[in-house]
Amino acid sequence: MSTTSATTETPLDAIESIFKDLRQTFNSGKTKPLTWRRQQLERLYEMCDKEKDAFGAAANTDFHRPNSETLIFDCGSIRNECTHALNHLDEWASDEKISDALAYATLDKYVHPEPLGIALIIGAWNYPFLVTLTPLIGAIAAGNCAILKPSELAPHSAAIMATMVARYLDPSCFRVVLGGVDQTQALLKGDIDKVFYTGSTAVGKIVMKAAADKMIPVTLECGGKSPVFVADDANLEICGRRLAWGKTINCGQTCLAPDYVLCSKATESRLIPYVTKAWQEFYTTNPANSDSYCHIVNSRHFDRVKRLINQDKVVHGGQTDSNQNFIAPTIMSDVTADDNVMQEEIFGPLLPFITVRDEQEAIRFINSRDKPLALYVFSSNKDLAKRVINATSAGSTCVNDVIFQIAPPSLPFGGVGASGLGAYHGKYSFDAFSHRRTVVYAPNWTEVLLVQRNPPYTAKKTAFIENLSKVRRRWRLLPRLGFWFWAFAALALAVAARIGLRGLQENKWNI
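Below the sequence we write its predicted structure tokens.
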């Protein structure tokens, strides 16, 4: 298998020519036919199916990521998104006819989705294929050209992506740019129509400023500290297993990972043994030697996560190995809002526990911080879960599980506030890379009415146009009355038909 060197960077002077080539392609209209879009989606599906082992090997080289995690969470999810887009592309791309008030009933009006142009997709290293290629599905489905900028922190994954995109997709429409900050800055200054960024909030602000200078739309997927509230009535055995899974897949380097747990002291003492038991089942008592346990991506991030560990509060784990960028699954108890581990997104396998009395105290704690990308609630009481949901704000919420809300392709994925801007997946990906263009056809025969809008103005003309264009409030009982009207009409028709049939049978109609 031939692949680009992991250290290869795209020359800065080549970026301008990439933009020119893509703009020429887009202006030619090549990306607009649905047949072309379907073909590229099929090719992307094929790439993530045939080359999944190569992708897995690259991610394993980058940060000891288990092959199964790349196959399931990256390649499998991308293929599902491709299939979902292929199943619904005709529906998404069709013009949406608009039913409006009687005042505008004479107009033929619809909303026409059109591609934005050239999209810049800036990916992240933690799920190197998922967060770069999933947005590309939306860009393709909507009819755009795209430049992919994978993260330089996973260089082997970035290199194999560049090789395979060039091999499977139309090179006149899709290009991969390799490199670091210099390449990213050059791309943000280029001839782009949309920016889609996945990464930290700090860099997201820089990307948003660059997009504002160009007056172009931006989608930001940033992350944050996603809380977990565990009620006293939760099934703690299931909760412990699911928390253990969500916290340590990808070694906790997941934007949706449960960041910290809020629960009562009694629930904490019962829950922690279930979490630790699950980790031992997953990775044995020595996770450093487990092929199923990922490592921290590099030494810089290793040092950052290690500094967040307060050994005085560790009740499980805490072991580290700088030679392997290894940090064991770790639980800290008696954590407060002032601890280092609560000052930033952990993005590692540390699970701090904070004691609260009840859901009201948990709600106050959650609302005192930035809005998270995800909020998790474990409870057997659906009403309690709804109370927590209604009293807080988050990009998404999952009750009695973690991360799983991202799986259905029909649901939007995105943040709110500091955790992100905009959403994608399924139809939401198509919309993220589309402009919804209003189209109205005004018939000539309405001129006899519209001539009244022309100067010179008179009180009579003004009153006529005001009355003609006025949108009336809908009577709230009308839908219900409409149902009973049609129900009565159907009943009357049935009765009339029965009377008529009886009349025929008795020959009362002299037929």
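The longest helix spans residues 478-505.
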